[in-house]
Every structure is written in structure tokens, then in C-alpha cells.
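ARCHIVE CARD
SHELF: 3
SLOT: left
DATA:
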Amino acid sequence: MAEQKDLRLAVLIDADNAPRSAIGDVMAEVAVYGTPTIKRIYGDWTTPNLASWKPLLLENAITPVQQYGYTTGKNSTDSAMIIDAMDILYTGQVDGFVLVSSDSDFTRLAIRLREAGKKVYGMGERKTPNPFIVACDKFVYIEVIRSAAEKAKAEEVKGEEPKQEKAPKTKKPAKKKEGAALAPAPASEPPEPESKVPKAVVELIADAVETMADEDGYAFMGDLGNLLVKKQPDFDPRNFGFSKLTQLVRYLPRFEVDVRQTSLPHVKHIYVRDKARK
């Protein structure tokens, strides 16, 4: 799905509700949606449990904002982050916000920022309550971000490994055991998705295709992706083991994908049709 690359974004991170180990991957994901002109992280930096954040903040040029915990058991980070977000909103310096937290306390903030015409991206763990998820224009699970980054790194390392020639081995005829089945040959096809695509997701895609379809029943893939996120902000093909929406739709037998050549030699448009609805 195409995103506006020129959006100026304010990235506000709740240190109490964001995994430290994934922050580098989160910032890489932010770059997909725009340019992070403001990067701040909120927490009580006098506490020992936040000390390990320091090298990561330096690596990613994130400014720590100190917020003392005035009362035991109360998260004072929320109020500081909300106040800063409103200050940034009124300065008009950014086009959108990235709220990194799994806390539903930022639900009203996300709604208010969208009411002001700002784009709001949420990033949090799968435990994030649904009200905060649907309050954002788009919500991405940190587990999905981390998984995609790990796969990309693994493929990069695999590509850099030098290939070593192995000496040919003399094959001995294998002894056939009674009742033993032959092991299937390793398939050259891409691996299966990490999880089965739920029926509700298939219906979501089908409804979106029907909404966007032309007289022949075909919907443009780019418009389809935008509509899916509007209908369900946490929709992401990576949730189901696919890097692109086109790959997900091709995997589902219910849909037909049509690739059409344009007047430009290297530009093609992709359309999708629901075969179950003729």
C-alpha cells in the first residue's frame, strides 16, 4: 500500500508500555510513513529499569523526556505525553503523529488529533486494547514489525554467506523398510503463512472489493489496501505471514488477481475480483 513519504511526523513513545528491544525496528517502520521530525520518549529516567534505554536513544536520536512518578502505582508518563502532543499540534509543525504504546489511555488523544486533521499511526503490542487501535488511522503490531525485521536480516545474512563446494558423495541404496513412507522432496515454493487467514479477514477483503469494484467486478489493489485500513486500522498482510497485500490476496482461492499493462513499459496495475460474487 502506498504511503505519503513527505509527511512530517512526531514520534511519541511511552517508555513504560513499549518494548526496548524493538525500538530500532519501530523507527525503521516509522520511516515507511514519513519523516520523523520530532522523536521523544517519556518516562521516569531516574528509575533503574529505564537505564538500559540510553544506548538505543543515542542510536536513534530520540530525546528522553523526564517525568517523575509522583504517586506509586500511577503512570504519570501518560499526562506528560498527552500535553506535549497537544503543544506540538498547536504549533503546526507536523502533519501526523506516531503514538508508540500499548496503553488505552491514549485513545482520546488519538481521536482528538484526528479531529484536528492529523494522521495518527499507532504502534503497540498485541495486548493493546481495541479502543486505542480503532482510534488510529493505522495501527501496527510491534510483534509483526519485529518478525518482519528478523526475516529481512536472516535473508540478508543468508545472501552474504559464501557457497562452499561439497565433494560428491557416493550414494548407497537405501534399505526399504516395510510400511515406511517415502519422505516428500523439499518444495521450492515459498513457505506457508505463519497462521491461517481467519474467515472474518476474508469477508473483510470481500466486502472491500465489492465496495470498490467496477462494472466487471474488479477493484484496484491500491484503493483496496487503503479501504481495508480505513475499515480496520490494524489490518496488515504481515499479520498473516505475507509482506504485501497482493501476496495475501493471491493466496486466497476466493479471489482472482488480474495484472494489467499500462502505457508505461515498467508500470502495471493490479486488480482483484471476488469469484464468489458474480
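SLOT: right
DATA:
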Amino acid sequence: MQGPAFPGWLLAHDMRATRFSGFRRSGFLRSGTLIAPCLLASLSTAGLAAAQTAQPAAAPAESPTPGTSSSGPSAGKVSSTTPRKKLTRPQQIAALADQLAQAKTPEDAQMLEARLEALRAAGLSPTTQLLLRRAQKDSQAEKPDEAVEDLSDALALQPDSAILWRSRAQMRLAAGDFNAAITDLGEALQRDGRDAKSWGLLSTVEEQRKDGPAALKAWQKVLELNPMADKNHKHLDALHIKAFGQPT
């Protein structure tokens, strides 16, 4: 009996088997192994529904006296609370991004970033997750070109996933293909402009390209989204010096 993961494995296997293997560009590994995101657990906000409670009925009205209204007091009102509507995944991401921008300690920021990463990866299908794990193994084996191909297959299945574009940009940076990495990050940020990790990666790529002002601008965006990423502004100051030289 085929397991539930068999169709996903078969699709990923077929996509990998159909790749053209006669020639594969060997990218130059400019940096250490960059591990693609692996936090794939989904998070959701628990619904807060209160049970409806009814108040006891009011006591019977006394017999009306002559000259008075015959209508007695109304029955007791039934109080109820409307259950809060469960937030969608994009709404949860937006709420956590707001909290990250107001984080007061590095520990709080790390916790919020972990939750954000899990939510961003929660929309990936089982087949896409399989390809992402394969890309991670290729990266660990210092095979960034094969990791890029795995993620290209994943993007063919879910082209609207910002985290996949960012992951492929990581692999392209490792392969030394800076221009392609920037293109992928542009796609990622177009879909998720409040992803501090994508902005941080963009700053790294621009720094590798020796574009100091662009690297500085991207890092300034990181600090808007996550002030605790560089609490003492040491990296910010270093990038400023690279971009404009030592202050006189």
C-alpha cells in the first residue's frame, strides 16, 4: 500500500530525473554553506470563543392594577459574546511583524523571527518541502548548483512562495551568482516586503558585489523591521564606512 508521501516523492523524483544533465554550470562557492530554512511547523492563533450563558427569567409580573399598563416587565436578556474570528496566515504574519519591529530585547526578536519563519514555511506543500530538504542536503554537501535546481523545481510548483525565492537566492549566493541572487530576492520581497531575513540577505549580496551604498540601504531596512538585529549598530557603522569612508 502506498504511503501518503509517495505521490510527493514520485513527483519530486520525476522532476529531478528529467533535468538536463549533459552540462551543469559549476558555481564558485564564495561563502560557507548556507542552510535553507527548515522550520516547517505551522502556527495558528487559537480561537477564543466564549460559551453563551443565559440569565434566569424575570419573576412573574404582579397583577396589573386598574389604570395601569397591563404589560409586565420584559423577560431577562440573554447575554452572549461573539467568538473572535481566527486570523489568516498572512494576518498572523503581519501581526508578528508588527511585534518584531517593537521588540525590546534580542531574545524577544529571536522568538518572533522563529515564529515568523514557521508561518512563512507553513504554506509549503509536502512535495515542495521534500525538494526544500533535498536542497538543504545539497547545500550541506557543498553542491550549491544542485541545490539551486532543487529549489527551481520547488518554485515551479509554488511560484508565489516568498520563502522559496529567498532560499534559492541563498543558494545562488553560495554558488557565486550574485546577480541571479539579487533577482530572486527582488521576487521574494515583492511577495513579502516585511521579511527582515530577505533584506539582510540582500545586504550581504550587495556587500559581496562591492556595492557599499546598496548594502547599507538594505541593512537600514533590516533595522526598521527588526531593531534587535544590530542593537548597537556595529554592523550599520561598518557598512557606512564601506559605503562612504571614514568620517573626518
